[in-house]
From TrEMBL:
<comment type="similarity">
    <text>Belongs to the class I-like SAM-binding methyltransferase superfamily. CmoB family.</text>
</comment>
<dbReference type="GO" id="GO:0002098">
    <property type="term" value="P:tRNA wobble uridine modification"/>
</dbReference>
<comment type="function">
    <text>Catalyzes carboxymethyl transfer from carboxy-S-adenosyl-L-methionine (Cx-SAM) to 5-hydroxyuridine (ho5U) to form 5-carboxymethoxyuridine (cmo5U) at position 34 in tRNAs.</text>
</comment>
<dbReference type="GO" id="GO:0016765">
    <property type="term" value="F:transferase activity, transferring alkyl or aryl (other than methyl) groups"/>
</dbReference>
<protein>
    <recommendedName>
        <fullName>tRNA U34 carboxymethyltransferase</fullName>
        <ecNumber>2.5.1.-</ecNumber>
    </recommendedName>
</protein>
<feature type="binding site">
    <location>
        <position position="315"/>
    </location>
    <ligand>
        <name>carboxy-S-adenosyl-L-methionine</name>
    </ligand>
</feature>
<keyword id="KW-0808">Transferase</keyword>
<keyword id="KW-0489">Methyltransferase</keyword>
<feature type="binding site">
    <location>
        <position position="130"/>
    </location>
    <ligand>
        <name>carboxy-S-adenosyl-L-methionine</name>
    </ligand>
</feature>
<comment type="subunit">
    <text>Homotetramer.</text>
</comment>
<dbReference type="InterPro" id="IPR027555">
    <property type="entry name" value="Mo5U34_MeTrfas-like"/>
</dbReference>
<dbReference type="InterPro" id="IPR010017">
    <property type="entry name" value="CmoB"/>
</dbReference>
<dbReference type="GO" id="GO:0032259">
    <property type="term" value="P:methylation"/>
</dbReference>
<dbReference type="InterPro" id="IPR029063">
    <property type="entry name" value="SAM-dependent_MTases_sf"/>
</dbReference>
<feature type="binding site">
    <location>
        <position position="110"/>
    </location>
    <ligand>
        <name>carboxy-S-adenosyl-L-methionine</name>
    </ligand>
</feature>
<keyword id="KW-0819">tRNA processing</keyword>
<feature type="binding site">
    <location>
        <position position="105"/>
    </location>
    <ligand>
        <name>carboxy-S-adenosyl-L-methionine</name>
    </ligand>
</feature>
Length: 322
């Protein structure tokens, strides 16, 4: 079982306190529904990770931790095996006492593309929707956030996050809750809300934008990263059964359409700040994620197309104000 008591104590003293009216019951219900052998195995792996007091932590340039007294090769091998019990690792990378968790995605590249375009996170309370293993939560803390909250309903991602947190010395500035955005009350309490790689998985993208807006303080900032296609306003791709082998991709807008969606959802100052094709160096198989990755999802003859014939993944970052 995961103990969320520390998080409850933290938010009881800040503008998230109203969340406590529903949150403990939601998390208790989630834990009751996720007691299975895999979850118990992951929890057991976390318990067997050593409790190391780190001497050097870098969350500004990476997610890295080290100790002045190097850990033995045997201990490194033990930690590596415990972490590999929680494969696949998709978002990262993490550098932990000489162990490089080389994840499928170079999530640090995405962070570098957006960090210079967003409002300062110094002293802020921020939310990351669909946060996966929580890699970006730690980068948000490195950028000065006072509290970074991630939500993602997948049990594996919660366990990966808790494993990293333990190896970082049980840092309480970041927390991951196994919830979906639709389960959050309208808190209106986060200074910045991030939604990265989520919008195209939603059956109703405008509903998702309204849900994000409901979590922001007045004048708070939305940071949204999503797949886009080339095209004019009112253009969006609605793929068939699969897009790049993903089943749950519903709408991929053009950049002008995405701006229009943000404005229709009540955001102001909506703008594009970055756009880039996803490269085979940014998303790929590694020893920490050994199943199919981007190279398997693209047309082997024409890498500008997915295996289904759609435009290859192009990702854009937008910012907007509530």
């Amino acid at each position: 079982m995961i103990d969320f008591g520390d998080f409850y104590q933290i938010i009881a003293k800040n503008k998230l306190s109203r969340w406590l009216e529903v949150l403990p019951a939601q998390l208790a219900n989630w834990q009751n529904q996720n007691i299975d052998n895999r979850f118990n195995q992951w929890i057991n792996s976390i318990k067997h990770l050593p409790s190391i007091i780190p001497d050097q932590i870098d969350l500004l340039h990476s997610v890295s931790v080290n100790s002045e007294q190097p850990i033995s090769i045997g201990e490194q091998q033990r930690i590596t095996q415990l972490l590999k019990n929680m494969m696949p690792w998709r978002k990262g990378p993490f550098h932990l006492y000489g162990i490089d968790v080389d994840t499928e995605w170079r999530s640090d590249w995405k962070w570098e593309r957006l960090i210079n375009h967003i409002d300062s996170l110094e002293g802020k309370i921020v939310l990351d929707v669909g946060c996966n293993s929580g890699y970006h939560l730690w980068r948000m803390i490195g950028a000065g956030a006072k509290l970074a909250v991630g939500i993602d309903p997948m049990a594996l991602y919660l366990c990966q996050f808790e494993a990293i947190r333990k190896l970082l010395g049980n840092d309480q500035r970041a927390h991951l809750l196994p919830l979906g955005i639709e389960q959050l009350p309208k808190l209106g309490a986060f200074d910045t809300v991030f939604s990265m790689g989520v919008l195209y998985h939603r059956r109703s993208p405008l509903d998702h934008l309204f849900q994000l807006k409901d979590q922001l303080v007045e004048d708070g900032q939305l940071v949204l990263e999503t797949l886009v296609i080339d095209g004019a306003e009112h253009t969006a791709l609605m793929p068939g059964e699969r897009y790049a082998q993903m089943r749950n991709v519903y709408f991929i807008p053009s950049v002008p359409t995405m701006i229009n969606w943000l404005e229709k959802s009540g955001f102001s100052d909506a703008k594009l700040v970055d756009i880039s094709l996803t490269s085979l160096d940014e998303q790929r198989k590694t020893e920490w994620m050994t199943s199919d990755s981007l190279a398997d999802f693209l047309d082997p003859i024409d890498l500008t197309k997915t295996i289904e014939g759609y435009p290859a993944p192009m990702r854009a970052v937008f910012i907007a104000k509530k």
